Structures are given as C-alpha cells and as structure tokens.
C-alpha cells in the first residue's frame, strides 16, 4: 500500500515487474517535483500544445493522476503512458523511441486515465508523428478509429470494450490532422463529458494497412471541478 499525507493513494497486488517499475518511477518523479517546489523553485514551464485552445477552456491534463495511468498492448521498448501526458514538445523522430508510445502485437491501444478532480471535458488533442517515408506494414501510423468511455472504475479489457457502448466514437480522417504539428483536435459532446472522474481511450484502428499505431502526446481540454477523495487500486495483471 502507498500512502501520501496519511492517506492511502494506491494498493499494488502482485504486479508484474514491468508495471511495478513504471509505478515506482512515477512516485520518484512526483517526489522530485515536490522537492523542487518546496525549495522555492516551482516548475513554471507551459505545456506544449499542437492545437489552439478553444475560447473559455484550459488545458486540464495536469489533473491526471499519473500514478493510476494504465496502458494495454504497448511496446515496452518505447515510451510509457506517462510520456503521453508529458508537457514537453514531442521530438518527432523514429530514433527517439522512448518519447512516444507504440502498440505491440497489433494496431490497438487502450489507455486508462483517472483524474484528481472531476472534469468537464471539451476536447482531446492527439499528437501522432509517424515516419511516413517507411512503407513497411510494421511501421506505425496514426490513430483512425477512437472510442472514449467515461467514469469506469478501472481499465477495460479489449473484449469488454468491444461489447460496451462508448460515450463517444470518433473516426479521424486526413483533414483532421494538422500537417505542421501532427495533432488532431477531437471535439467531444460536452453534455456527455460532465463530471468525468476517469476516462478510457481505446484506439481501435490505425490509418491504412499498418499493424502498429503511434501516439506521441495527449492534451485534455476542459474545466476543473470538485476535487476527488479516492484511491487508485492496482490489480494483478494477466500479462
């Protein structure tokens, strides 16, 4: 069990070594950020954005509880879930493997995103910068069909997601992607994304015939609401 300010924030039950290492790295990063702030040098860097923010809304990606992030079917030789919500500008090169997430066995990715506050989510910005010079089917491409599920207590399995109606489903086309930043802005039906405590993003299909998908950054745009008083529980993995 992990405690913060005398409150349990997570329970780890028989994790595999890979997920345990990712979780401990997250704790280390949070500790380093706290030390920097307490020393009188808080981080003031603004997050990078690949698309313009809509009027009246702000970037609420900093409300993600990164200790509870989960990612399914990702290639561990590349970046992990925390890299997706990193503030820095993506490097955009195939050589910088740890700077982006790539799917593993096929084109599907499943990301579970818990929040520290209930959110009203206006839109999602996805950045994907694949190397379009490579015609190999094994090279990654951008997301095409994306499904969103809200307020789930845990990550969904792929079969479970296939059988559950999504809160919203989006099919991205070539014109949705900014050719300069590699970012697609997904406008959500905001009436369905009120008081969101967690969200699952399921990338079902990628562009073309490629068998891998690449994702560099995610930005969540909306409004913050009431602070949550809950815990993130890690359960045993079947992987």
TrEMBL record:
Coiled-coil region: none
PITH domain location: 49-239
Parts of the chain that traverse the membrane: none
Keywords linked to the UniProt accession: Disulfide bond
A GO cellular component entry from the record: cytoplasm
Family to which the UniProt record says this protein belongs: Belongs to the thioredoxin family.
PANTHER family noted in UniProt: THIOREDOXIN-LIKE PROTEIN 1
Name used for this protein in its record: PITH domain-containing protein
Organism: Exophiala oligosperma
Lineage, uppermost ranks: Eukaryota, Fungi, Dikarya, Ascomycota, Pezizomycotina
């Amino acid at each position: 069990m992990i405690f913060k300010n005398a409150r349990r924030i997570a329970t780890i039950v028989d994790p595999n070594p890979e997920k345990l290492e990712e979780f401990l790295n997250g704790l280390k990063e949070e500790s380093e950020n706290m030390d920097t702030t307490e020393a009188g040098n808080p981080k003031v860097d603004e997050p990078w954005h690949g698309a313009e923010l809509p009027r009246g809304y702000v970037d609420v990606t900093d409300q993600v509880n990164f200790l509870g992030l989960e990612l399914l079917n990702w290639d561990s030789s590349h970046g992990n879930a925390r890299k997706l919500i990193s503030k820095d500008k993506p490097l955009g090169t195939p050589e910088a493997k740890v700077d982006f997430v790539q799917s593993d066995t096929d084109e599907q990715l499943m990301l579970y995103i818990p929040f520290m506050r209930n959110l009203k989510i206006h839109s999602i910005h996805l950045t994907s910068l694949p190397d379009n010079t490579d015609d190999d089917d094994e090279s990654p491409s951008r997301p095409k069909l994306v499904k969103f599920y809200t307020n789930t207590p845990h990550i969904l399995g792929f079969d479970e997601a296939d059988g559950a109606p999504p809160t919203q489903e989006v099919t991205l086309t070539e014109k949705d992607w900014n050719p300069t930043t590699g970012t697609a802005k997904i406008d959500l039906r905001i009436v369905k994304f009120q008081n969101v405590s967690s969200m699952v993003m399921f990338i079902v299909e990628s562009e073309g015939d490629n068998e891998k998908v690449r994702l560099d950054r995610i930005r969540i745009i909306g409004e913050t609401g009431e602070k949550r008083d809950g815990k993130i529980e890690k359960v045993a993995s079947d992987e």
